[in-house]
Automatic annotation (TrEMBL):
Its EC number is 2.1.1.222, 2.1.1.64. It is an enzyme of class 2 (transferase). This is Ubiquinone biosynthesis O-methyltransferase. It comes from Iodobacter arcticus. GO terms for molecular function: 2-polyprenyl-6-hydroxyphenol methylase activity; 3-demethylubiquinol 3-O-methyltransferase activity. PANTHER family: METHYLTRANSFERASE, UBIQUINONE BIOSYNTHESIS O-METHYLTRANSFERASE, MITOCHONDRIAL. S-adenosyl-L-methionine binds at R40, G59, D80, M124. Keywords: Methyltransferase, S-adenosyl-L-methionine, Transferase, Ubiquinone biosynthesis. Belongs to the methyltransferase superfamily. UbiG/COQ3 family. It holds the Pfam family Methyltransf_11. The keyword Hydrolase does not apply. O-methyltransferase that catalyzes the 2 O-methylation steps in the ubiquinone biosynthetic pathway. The lineage of its organism: Bacteria, Pseudomonadati, Pseudomonadota, Betaproteobacteria, Neisseriales. Gene3D superfamilies: Vaccinia Virus protein VP39.
């Protein structure tokens, strides 16, 4: 795969590279990821046992989810194209004493090299940051074994998500750096469902992920208007 064909937005890589040293600072811009990490894992565990599974975390960043999965007994590989984030992820393993195989490789390339190799594939908070989310979804589907699970999370596209995820989180509450999200790249559940159908993985369930600014608590619920997660499965 040539550099010109890699499904990546250089400005997105630069954005996360500039913040790479803060990945494991729980009071930094990555605080929301640390706080929702247990919820993401809970959502997965409602569908499949993680212990002993071979899991691929696509767009792993600094390794927050990858380490969480490893802590639950999974054999985890994390891939990302932001080399600075991967360096931070690898360094943090010395502190956590966990084992994760981190690799800088496009998901489409890995899908060609290792088709149907993973029991579970996760792709969290990444689809809204790439030029072609459908390409990522298709690659994730190729990577998972028959009968395996693929989990996605992303942001819905509507007035409420713009007000809360962009205006509220970035400009009013200052939870995220300004410019973190491009509203035009947000993905409606119906659009993601179409991508998964085209990739021949079946959507099993959808859950909203909501934040209460008063209690400052996140929770899984039925409100998928802003953040949402979906569980999909490849036919056995």
């Amino acid at each position: 795969m040539t550099e010109a064909n890699i499904n990546v937005d250089p400005s997105e890589i630069a954005k996360f590279s500039a913040l790479a040293h803060k990945w494991w600072d729980t009071e930094s811009e990555f605080k929301p990821l640390h706080e929702i990490n247990p919820l993401r894992i809970d959502f997965m565990q409602k569908h499949v046992e993680l212990a002993g599974k071979k899991i691929l975390d696509v767009g792993c960043g600094g390794g927050i989810l990858a380490e969480g999965l490893a802590r639950h007994g999974a054999n985890v590989t994390g891939i990302d194209l932001a080399e600075k984030s991967l360096k931070v992820a690898k360094l943090h393993l010395f502190e956590s004493k966990l084992e994760v195989d981190y690799r800088c490789v496009p998901v489409e390339q890995l899908a060609t090299e290792e088709p149907e190799s993973y029991d579970i594939v996760t792709c969290m908070e990444m689809l809204e940051h790439v030029p072609s989310p459908a390409s990522v979804v298709a690659a994730c589907a190729r990577l998972v074994k028959p009968g395996g699970w693929v989990f996605f999370s992303t942001l819905n596209r509507n007035a409420k998500s713009y007000l809360l995820a962009v205006v509220g989180a970035e400009y009013v509450l200052g939870m995220l750096p300004r410019g973190t999200h491009d509203y035009a790249k947000f993905i409606k559940p119906s659009e993601l469902a179409r991508m998964t159908r085209n990739a021949e993985i079946e959507t099993v369930s959808l859950s909203g992920l909501s934040y209460n600014p008063l209690t400052k608590i996140y929770k899984l619920d039925d409100d998928a208007a802003v953040n949402y997660l979906i569980a999909t499965r490849k036919a056995p």
